[in-house]
Each structure stands twice: as C-alpha cells, then as structure tokens.
Amino acid sequence: MSRHDEAELVFCPLGGVGEIGMNFALYGFGPSHARQWIVVDCGVTFPDPTLPGVDLVLPDTRFIEENVKDLQGIVITHAHEDHYGALLDIWPRLKKRVWMTPFAAGLLEAKRRMDGGPDIPVQIYHAGERFSVGPFDIEALAVTHSIPEPVSLAIRTPAGTVIHTGDWKIDPAPTIGPKTDEARFRAIGDEGVVALICDSTNALREGDSPSEQAVGVGIKEVIDASPGRVAVTTFSSNIGRIRSVAEAARDSGRQVLVLGTSLKRAINVATELGYMDGVPEFISEEDYGYIPRDNLVILCTGSQGESRAALAKLARDEMRNVALSPGDTVIYSSRMIPGNEKAILEIKNLLIEQGIKIVEDGDALVHVSGHPRRNELLKMYEWTRPRVLVPVHGEAAHLVAQGSLGAQAGIPEIAQVRNGDMIRLAPGVAEIIDQVPFGRVFKDGRIVGSEDEVGVRDRRKLSFAGHVAVNVVLDDRYDISGDLDLVAIGVAKKDAKGELLEELMVDAAIGAVDSIPRVRRKDLDLVAEAVRRAVRSSANEAWGKKPIVTVFITR
Amino acid sequence: MSRHDEAELVFCPLGGVGEIGMNFALYGFGPSHARQWIVVDCGVTFPDPTLPGVDLVLPDTRFIEENVKDLQGIVITHAHEDHYGALLDIWPRLKKRVWMTPFAAGLLEAKRRMDGGPDIPVQIYHAGERFSVGPFDIEALAVTHSIPEPVSLAIRTPAGTVIHTGDWKIDPAPTIGPKTDEARFRAIGDEGVVALICDSTNALREGDSPSEQAVGVGIKEVIDASPGRVAVTTFSSNIGRIRSVAEAARDSGRQVLVLGTSLKRAINVATELGYMDGVPEFISEEDYGYIPRDNLVILCTGSQGESRAALAKLARDEMRNVALSPGDTVIYSSRMIPGNEKAILEIKNLLIEQGIKIVEDGDALVHVSGHPRRNELLKMYEWTRPRVLVPVHGEAAHLVAQGSLGAQAGIPEIAQVRNGDMIRLAPGVAEIIDQVPFGRVFKDGRIVGSEDEVGVRDRRKLSFAGHVAVNVVLDDRYDISGDLDLVAIGVAKKDAKGELLEELMVDAAIGAVDSIPRVRRKDLDLVAEAVRRAVRSSANEAWGKKPIVTVFITR
Question: Over chain B, what is the mean pLDDT?
C-alpha cells in the first residue's frame, strides 16, 4: 500500500488556537484522497472596536464546505458561546447532524426561539455514552467545567485514539454533575492514546484549581458579612455557580431575585433538566419592594461591563422596580475577559460613587476558573499517557507553556499547531502535512460575510473621517445650475476660524467645475473626479482629515 | 463685613477627579464677586473606541474662559500628558502666562516644533523656588515621580495655605533629581496648612513604593540573565527609567539603541538639561548589524500596544534595519493603562509566537509606579497636618480609599469633591458652594469642539450602519429620469439570498416615487422623505440595520 493510500488520522484546527474563543476543529480519517471528517465545536468570538457594528465573529468554514460531502457530523463538547455559538449561523452551510448533550441542546433551542435560526437535527448524547459518527467511534467522558454537562471526547479510529479534552478541570467538589471521570481516562490511557488535544487556558497557573464548593463557601462568607443587599454577577451559563449563590443565600436566610435575560434563559433550561432541584424559588421583580435589604440577594448579568445588562442598569439606577443603595455589596463572581477591562471599571466606579462595596476575585474566593492549572494538566498526562500532546484553547503564551510542561512530563512528541495547520497524528511521527484556508467571517445584522461583504471595512473609514455627498447639476451649457447640494456627515462643522466646512467644500466644488474648460465638461466622470478631489482637499485643509466623498453629476 | 465680601480660598477641579487623566484645576481667591484665579495643570486624556477618529480629549474650559479677565496664570506641575498635554490647544482660549520647569518647557517646545501650535509665554521656575501669580504666593516643592522635575505646589494666600501635591511619591533613591523635600513639607506644615489636595492613584496599595534604583537593579538582573538581545519598552518621559536601563546596559557590557520618535524627543530634551550626563552615547540603527546580539539593549516605545510604535513594528518584523529573533527578551518596564490591555496582549502574543521571552512587572522588579502608596500618604499627612484633605487624581475607588485613610489618620475634614464642584476651603469649614460647568471637548484633526462640532456623534452612527446617498432626477412630468443613482458605503453588499442591497434599495426608491400621485410630487421634500424611508426600510429588511440615508432630488 502506497503512502497515498494509507488511512491517516489528522487534526486540523480552524479556530481557537493562538487566539481566544471561536473554537472550531476538524478530525479526519482515511487516505488523503478519501478523508472522512467530523467537526468538533463551532464557536464564536466577540468583535473588538476595530469591527464597528459587527455582532459576532465566526470561523471561516470554506475548507469544510468544499469537503462537505465527506463531513459526517458535528460534535459539540459544551454550550459555551466560544464552543457552540456559531452553530445557528454556520449550520446552513454544512447541514449535518449535530451531537450535543441535553443542556447544550436546550440552550440552542432557547436561543433559536428568541433570535430565529434553522431547525437543526440534533442527536442527544450524555457523558459516559459511546456513539459513532462515520468512521469515528466517540466516547463522551465526564469532566468538570463552568457549565453543566461538559465532556471530553475520546475519538477512536482504526489508526488510534485521540482525546479531545474540550474545556475541563479537575473539580474535587462540583456543585452539579459528576466529577471528572478519572477511571475512564485511565482506562483509555491503558488502551493507548495517540494524541491528547488539550486545553491550555490556565497553563501558566501553578497548582490546582479550588473547587466550586469552596467558591460557594466564599460567597456565603461575603453575604453573611454584608449588611445590605448583595448583588452577584456571574456568567449566565454557570449553573453550578448560580446554585452556589442560591444555596448560600438560602443558608443566610435571604431570598434571590434574578435579573437579566440570558441568566433567566439559562436557568429555565437548567430547571427543565433538574439542575435547580432543591433550590428555593426565586422571587419576582414585583416582590422586590417587600423584601428587607438584608434578606435579599440579586443574581444579575453584566459581569463584563455590558452597557445594557442588568448590573449596568442598576449602576445607572435605570431599573423600574429595583435599585441598590449605599451599604449594599456587589460581588463579581467572574473574571475580566481581555478587552472588557475599561467597561467593567466604569461600572464599578459608578457603584463605588454610590457607596456600594465591590468584592471580586482576589478580595475573597468568589470565583474560580473552569480550566486546568498545571497540576491538573500533569494528572491528565499521567492518566492518558499520550504519544503526542497538541496544546489548544489559548493564546501563544499558553500554548507554549503547556508544550513545555508536557515535554517536562515526558510526553514524547509535542506538536505546536496553529489555525489552518493540518497535522497527521497517525501513523508515524506527528507531522504538519498541509495548510488549509481558515479565518474569520462576520455576522452583521442578518448577514454573514467577509469584512467587505458586511461593509465593516468602509465603516471603519467612515468612523475616522465621515462621508460627504455632493450633487452637481449642470445646465445645457455645462454651467452649474442653481445651488450646489452638499451633505457632510461625521465631518467637523467649522474650521479654526469659524468658517462652515460645508460652505468651504461647496466653494471648492464650484471652483473645481469652473476651473475645467467648458468644452471638457462633457466628460462627466472628469467633472466628478475633479469635484471629489477638490472637496477632499478642502476638508483636509480646514480640518486635517479627508472624508470619503461621493459625487453625483446630473445634466 | 458681610459674608459676600469675605475673601475666600476656593478649589474647583474641572477634570481629573473621579476619572483618569485630564487634570485641570482652578484655585480662586477673593470675595465671590471679585475672585482671582489660577489654573493648575492642563492635561489631556485619550479617546476610547466610542470616539472614533478623535485624537485627544481635552477639558472643557468654558467656565474659566468666562472669567478669563480674572485669570492670573497657569501653573504646570510636570510634563506628563495628563497634566500638560492640552496646553497647545487650550492656551489660545486663555492667553495667560504659563509657569513651568525647564524640562516641561523643553518638551512643550519640542512638541510645538513638531506639531505646530501657539508661541506660549513661559515663565521658568525650579523646585525650591517661590513666585507670585496674582494674589497667590506659590512655592514649588521637590517631589519624586516618573518624570524629571515633578513638583508639589504650596499655594499661600491671605486666607491660608493649600498644598497641591500633583503626582508624587517618596522615592528613597531616585536616579535623577532630588528626593521628595520632606523638610520643606514639614516646615510648611508647621506654618499651618488649610488643605492638602492629594494624589489618590495608589491609595488602594499597601506599604511603600520600591525605589527607582531598585528597578534599575531588577532590570540589570534580567539583562544579565538574557542570552540574546533585550528590548525594554517604557514611557517616553520617564528619563529616570531610561537612565536606569542605559546604566544597566553599560554595566552589563551592552550598547543601547533607541527606537521611537517620542522617546528620542524626550531624551533630546533631557540631554540638553544634563539629565543624561555620564551615560554612554546611544548607537544608531545603522550600527545595529555590527553589534553582537548579547551586546545589545533596545530601548523602544510601544508599551501600551500602540500599533505604530517601535515595539509593534518589531513584533511584526516591519523594521528596515532592526529585528528580534528567538531567544531574545522583551521587558515591559511599564504598567497597562486601562483600555489598552487587549492591544498589549496582541503584541505580546506576536512576540511569544516568535520564541521571544516576555518579562513584565510581577515576573521581576522591572517597573514601579510614580504614585504614593498608603504608607507614603500617611507620611505626607504627618508632614503637612492639613485641616482638610481633598483626594484628587484617581477614580472613585481611589478617592474613597484615600478619604478613609485620611480620616483614620485623624485629618479633621475629608472633602470628597468631583469635577465641577467649587469648594470653599477657607474661611470656615470646607463646603461645596457652587457647581460650575465642566466636561470634555475633543481634538479631531485640527479642530477642537464638542462631539457634534467635530462630527464624532455622526461618525459613531456611520460606524454602526453606514451611509447611503441617493440622487433622484425627475423630468418635467415628475417621473424618474434615466437611472436612479445610489451609492452605499459601509452597508452589507448582499442579502441572505444573494440579492445586491444596492439594487434592492434602488427598487425601493423607485417604488417610493411611483407610489406618490404625480400631482403631489411637486413637493420635492415629500418625495425625498418618502425615498429616504423606503431606502432605510429596504436595508433594514435585507440586512437588519438602518443606514443613514441622504437623498438629493433634482428636477
């Protein structure tokens, strides 16, 4: 059998490696001319200020679209936005069955009901189960993370077994769901593991993560020490944390009010699946006025400084029924996602100005990350004993740190891959064998496309220097007829001497037409270009910036 | 004498309190109907992404412009942008003499030569000197900070003495300039101090600041341990730090290359004033190729992730003569200014991807803040024994923290003021007696003005949904003549079905005209408004967003 015909096991991340979020990975099996594929996870990331008006950033799926006939299905490890948030927008391009746990499927359906989207054929699986997707024999292994029902995937193929960890940690005392299934990881390790594709997020942090239960105790201590209301903000899908807060409130004799759409949606899904069993019912906003301050805990959205979330509204005192007052406490049971620091700080300052106390990670044990620290990574290596370690989920610093750790731990092959690398994991030594197209597309309103397709490239220019539209009407002698119409949007109004820029630009446009010999004005494109240049340079002279200029010439 | 005629000493911050940067404060003396004023500091802050295209944020000087005949002068405490950066733009509105130290005057002049600006009459003063500005008898007191020649101001008036600290700390071993002048602070304390207007930036940090000399040692240790090139990025005006780096390099047998315009400018000014005496000459970019890797230190701009600064160019390997390679080290001898975290992270990841090691504050003692921690604040209280403490320079959390600390230390009156509060410090108990207009204006290109005046409000809208310009030409029967011209900028190109949005919008515009009875089309405003609405709603239907629409109607 020639090499060409050999069945290979390949891994190809198209997002989430060397960047935060937007996890989207392919596994392939078969000879290179007839590879069968699965997609593992289909996440989004959020736009930064260089993408004004863009709602979401999605992985570019060009490569797998071209191979869609050989795509066997999509497997989702858990329902965080960076692992499943692109499904509704990407699925119509792939149209394959999606394997998910009940909680992920419930959240997806809740989102679809609210925002619209395709009716996706979902195959439910549970941690501990084993199922086939094409040539891939997949076992879902229970892990712990900051959401219900996270799993790692053991992906068995005739060429060997890969473990794709997804997001995980070893929580010795989770508040919902089973512990990380050490026994199964060890058993699969005994069978032999070709490669461990492993979460690197906390590879720079020493030691072991504290448990979710310890965070519950930390939150209860803060609540007990607080004289007034306590508002707790956390990530909506962290149902374990929400339970911790609800139980701490109950044990402190307080009732709980929930504020924020995404939090309510996640709680509804969790409730249907029994994850809120035993927690006292939450009170409604209308009951708020009847609850003494020291008997209340408010669970709210807005930990990332989102300006329309519940906590921001509380900070600006914009809520109809609910308000905070001096002496109240706000607990940030969350981390700052990079890029959100300033927005978070602004909300905190608004709260502090009102005499509200802030408690955050570092002040007390009120948050813990859902990703493995270095000791936990070492345990995973020991359980699974892979031949190859492929660090994923993290930025360059994290990937490099996990790579070094794995090498120190004696893993024979460390494979540093980046988005678009196709790496052959078996047979033979791991090797990057191809580069495939990857990148980002943008959801903007209802449209998904490139920067140009959604218009954001031009909007970036508009946001710098605005737009001027000019309408030049020429009479039959090619002189300007009547007044020249000019509309400037997003341009400075006056120059330093107080002259109106619109007037200066109109004068420049008229001057440009006048300066063209009448016989040459028949060339309307030439007139338009002369006006465009004159208007831009007049703006530049008065303002120091050149707007985009659109010229209409009418005869 | 009625209260109205009593000479009062008042303080009125118009920027820099409850926010970062943009320090701008007034002191007034005299009866309320005939108050004499001075301005202390005139700083900028930098725009966040909600201000696209804006270059600088300046204090709104309306109030002092209205009272400009009673303004006696402007005193600058030091040459950081947040304390003096608005001078060139604000001065033409005030036109009064400016008191500055030689380093501040040198930097101002260097900036004016590069960027242009008014010829400002400057009166030079030195730490230790005493000078009069109208009724204010001012003594400049040496302090330490992260720039040459920082001072606190003791402002004596017949109603009593105020100490305005500016930015300061107690550095036991600065690398340039004198130590904080404890003896003079104590002597003025003995005379009696009405109020201490005091830097709050580090009021949440326990203990004392490490010295600049200790940072020099820390940097030398990192350099000694680095096998390859070492690049150090720091704030341009931190001449003490630049000296520390240059001396560490010299002691490690390395030569220094300086990259970045603002760094070179600050070093030139410092050199003229003798602050670089004894430091070996820096090498030029052309010499770079001849210096062995382990004999080189690169001092560069870009600590805040600025995309056009030297470090970003090094990270992207865009420099003609200079490059970093695997095994080199980059030291961030700086802090992250809030809002810049993500940009800084992106540069760091680019460097790490290339095998370059990052050393930052926390990894080693390579940076120290120039602001007083809690022990230093307590010392200042003890030296000056003020009747009133007014926390300034900081966000709400810092101001509140310093207020509590001052109260614990036994200061009788703690005055929490915010921008626009006018507080009477003497005679009598400190009291807020007025609110004056304050705010922000924006420098955008060459223009300074409000959000509307510089066009940024519209640009924010443009950046969300773009602009469409339509030209409708009606013939003498009020039918559309020829093709309808429509130009869409920053709008999605196609709808979900692949239809061109421009075509959909043209059809909507034509439909809108057709739907108006011919007799009513004489009302061109009505036609324009119908077209505008039709185009917006057609975009909204196809895209989910409504662009700004400009309609020209030509007959």
Answer: 96
- A339 contacts in B (CB within 8 Å)? 341-342
Burial of B208 (0-12, 13-18, 19+ CB in 10 A): middle
Pairing of strands B447-449, A440-444: unpaired
Question: Considering chain A, what is the average pLDDT of its residues?
Answer: 96
AA letter at B82: D
CB-based burial of residue B69 (10 Å sphere; 0-12 exposed, 13-18 middle, 19+ buried)? Answer: exposed
Helix axes A524-543, A501-514, angle to 10 degrees: 140
> Mean pLDDT over residues A31-59, rounded?
95
The residue among B463, B476, B543, B546 with the most chain A CBs within 10 A of its CB, best to mutate, is B463
DSSP strand pairing (A136-142 vs A130-133): antiparallel
Q: If DSSP codes are grouped into helix, strand and coil, which group holds residue A109?
A: helix
Per-residue model confidence (pLDDT) at position B555: 82
pLDDT exceeds 60 at position B81: yes
Burial tier of B3 (Cβ tally within 10 Å: 0-12, 13-18, 19+): exposed
pLDDT tens by residue, B282-336: 999 989 989 999 999 999 999 999 999 999 999 999 999 999 999 999 999 999 9
* Residue position matching structure tokens 């606190």: B152
Answer yes or no: do A463 and B466 touch at CB < 8 A: no
Q: Specify the pLDDT at position B3.
A: 58
> Would you call A463 and B462 a contact, using CB atoms and an 8 Å cutoff?
yes
E strand map for B101-236: 122-124, 130-133, 136-142, 151-157, 160-164, 193-199, 230-233
B397 with A543: Cβ contact below 8 A: no
What mean pLDDT comes out for the span A114-130? 96
Among B1, B67, B78, smallest CA distance to B422 is for B67
B/e letters for B48-57, b = 16+ CB within 10 Å, e = fewer, are ebebbbbbbb
Question: What is the separation of C-alpha A275 from the centre of its chain, rounded to a whole number of angstroms?
Answer: 25
> What's the CA gap between B245 and B266, in Å, rounded?
15
Give residue-wise pLDDT tens across range A338-362.
Answer: 889 999 999 999 999 999 999 999 8
**pLDDT tens digit sequence for A373-405:** 999 999 999 999 999 999 999 999 999 999 999
CB atoms within 10 A of CB A69: 6
Q: Give the nearest chain A residue to B492 (CA atoms).
A: A454
User: Is this model's pTM higher than 0.90 or not?
Assistant: yes
User: Which 8-state DSSP code applies to residue A68?
Assistant: G
> Does residue B303 contact residue B259 with C-beta atoms inside 8 Å?
no
Residues 6+ away with beta carbon under 8 Å from A34: A70
B382-403 burial, b if ≥16 CB within 10 A, otherwise e?
ebbbbbbbbbbbbbbbbbbbbb
SS3 letters for A489-519? ECCCCECCCCCEHHHHHHHHHHHHHHCCCHH
A145 Cα to chain B: minimum distance (Å): 25
Which residue, B273, B145, B284, is CA-closest to B202?
B145
The pLDDT, as a whole number, for residue A4 is 62
CA angle B264, B269, B274 (to 5 degrees): 115
Please say whether the beta carbons of A462 and B490 come within 8 A. Answer: yes
Chain B residues with CB under 8 Å of A89 CB are none
Q: Is A413 on the interface with B (CB under 8 A)?
A: no
Q: Sign (positive/negative) of CA torsion A454, A458, A464, A470? A: negative
Find out whether the peptide bond into A427 is cis, omega within 30 degrees of 0. yes
Per-residue pLDDT, averaged over B126-152, amounts to 98
Task: Judge whether A197 and A398 are in contact, CB under 8 Å.
Answer: no
The predicted model gives B8-32 an average pLDDT of: 95
Instruction: Tell me how far CA of residue A32 lies from CA of A4, A7, A8, A388, B511, in angstroms.
Output: 6, 8, 7, 21, 54
Kindly tell me if the per-residue pLDDT of B135 is higher than 70. yes
Does A550 score more than 60 pLDDT? yes
